[in-house]
Specification:
23% strand; 13 strands; globular; seven-stranded mixed beta sheet; 19% helix; four-stranded mixed beta sheet; alpha/beta; 224 residues
């Protein structure tokens, strides 16, 4: 029996996180680039926007980049592996545990469901509520994303277990990407949610001192 972890992404990024680069400029991926102002150094894009007049999207460029990295080990932009991209130490804790990089997956508001060793650039996209000054980063339900689903590439058997540490705003994406996967899909959560067939739910009380928005960090430390 194999066990796999799905952990939601974090807004706090590693200070060393590298941006995608194109034409001598940094590319920052956001949910609504029309609300941002490009400069001589930075341009703002969605992951599924087309690259200039090319017929390829930034997401497809990232796929090609990861393929070359896997074949050659070359990472000229210095992109972080997904688990390294986020600042909270719980991401490293997960991959340093018995699960390792190959059995830890990140549910990213910008990129979808990616394995923790997949190279990702810096991005600023979230499902969480934001104040009026940061609406450029808020991904809305009607937004169209060609989300990665790298968990679907795994050979998951009926007895394998997939653990998701659920945040309310991430459930819609998680359901969409995992509803037809095999295995026992176990969701840990701390809020009242409507159960769906095909999933097992375990409600957890937030550890003492942990907020409901950050309960999963404290809980995953206990879990590991």
């Amino acid at each position: 029996m194999a066990e796999m972890i799905v952990f939601p992404c974090a807004g706090r990024k590693n200070p060393r996180a590298a941006c995608w680069e194109y034409g001598g400029k940094k590319v920052v991926f956001v949910a609504r680039p029309e609300l941002c102002h490009d400069s001589a150094e930075v341009i703002y894009q969605r992951p599924d926007d087309l690259v200039d007049n090319n017929d390829r999207t930034w997401r497809q460029e990232l796929q090609s980049y990861n393929k070359r990295y896997k074949e050659t080990g070359q990472n000229p932009l210095g992109l972080c592996r997904a688990w390294e991209l986020y600042q909270p130490e719980e991401y490293e804790l997960l991959v340093r545990s018995k699960f390792g990089e190959r059995r830890v997956f990140i549910l990213s508001a910008g990129w979808g469901l990616v394995r923790s060793d997949y190279l990702l650039p810096y991005y600023d996209i979230t499902f969480a509520s934001v104040d009026s000054r940061a609406t450029y980063k808020r991904r809305r339900g009607e937004d169209i994303y060609d989300d990665f689903n790298q968990l679907a590439d795994e050979d998951i058997g009926q007895d394998d277990e997939i653990y998701f540490f659920g945040l309310g705003s991430y459930f819609t994406l998680y359901y969409r990407l995992t509803h037809d996967l095999h295995g026992k899909k176990i969701i840990f959560h701390c809020s009242t949610i409507r159960n769906r067939g095909g999933y097992e739910y375990k409600r957890c009380l937030p550890p003492v001192g942990a907020s409901r928005r950050r309960w999963h960090y404290a809980f995953v430390r206990r879990f590991v």
